[in-house]
Amino acid sequence: MTLYYSLVFALLTFEIGTFLVLVAPMPFTVKQKFMKFLATNPYVAKLQYSLKISLIFTGILFFDAVQRMLRVVQEGQAAKSGQAVQDVRSETTFAARKFYAQRNVYLTGFTLFLSLILSRVFSIILDLIQTQEELQAVKKGGSASEDVTTLKSRLESKDREIANLIRQGKANNAVLDDLADSQNAAQGGSKKTN
C-alpha cells in the first residue's frame, strides 16, 4: 500500500476509534464534561480543521481510485472480448490490480462516509446534552415557575397599558370629531355669508 493510502487507513482507524468513544455508554456527567471539552478546546478545533483538510485530499483520492477501478474493469472486459490466449500470470496480475483498485475505492469511500457520520453524531450528542440540561432545569422548577409568574405579571401590565391606550384613542377621536364638526360648521357658515 502506498504512503497516502496508508495515511487514509490511519485516518479511518482514528475515525473508527473516535466513533466508538462517542457512542460508548458513559455516565451523563462524564459525557457532558467530555463533550464540552471537545466542543470548546482550541486544540481540538485545530485538529478538526486539519482533519477537514485531509478529508479534501481523501475525496480527491476517492475520485482517482474510482477512475482507476473503472479503467481496470474496462481493460479486463477488453481482454475477455479479445479472446486472446492468456496465461496464468497475466490473469493473476489483472486480478491483483482489480483487487487493489477496489480496495482503494472502499478505503477512501468508507473514510469519507465515516467522517460525515462522525460530524452528525457529534452534533446530535451535543444537542442531546443541551436538551437534558434544560430538562433538569425545568424539573427543578424553581426558576421556571418564577419566570412564568414574572411573565404573567408583565403580560397583565401590558394589557392594562393597551386598555388605557384604547381609551385615550377613543377620547382623542371624539375630540377630533367635535373639532372637525365645529370647523366644518364655521367654514360652512362663513361660505353662506359670502
Keywords:
single chain; 194 residues; mainly alpha
Task: Describe this entry's structure for a reader.
The mean pLDDT is 86. Helices cover 93% and strands 0% of the residues. The chain is built from five helices and no strands. α1 runs parallel beside α4 and α3 (42-82) runs antiparallel to α4. By secondary structure, it is mostly helical.
Q: Which runs of at least 5 residues are low in confidence (pLDDT < 50)?
A: none
Q: Return the average pLDDT rounded to an integer.
A: 86
Q: Tell me the span between the first and last alpha carbons.
A: 111 Å
Would you report the number of β strands? Answer: 0
Order of helices and strands: HHHHH
Q: Given the C-alpha coordinates, what overall shape results?
A: elongated
Helix content: over 70%
> Strand percentage, roughly?
under 5%
Can you summarize the main beta sheet?
A: none
Rg is 37 Å
Number of helices: 5
Structural class, judged by helices and strands?
A: mainly alpha
What's the layout of helices and strands?
Layout: H1 3-23, H2 28-40, H3 42-82, H4 88-140, H5 142-193
Helix pairs in contact: 1-4, 2-4, 3-4
Please provide a brief summary of the model:
The protein has 194 residues and is mainly alpha-helical. It is 93% helix and 0% strand. It is elongated.
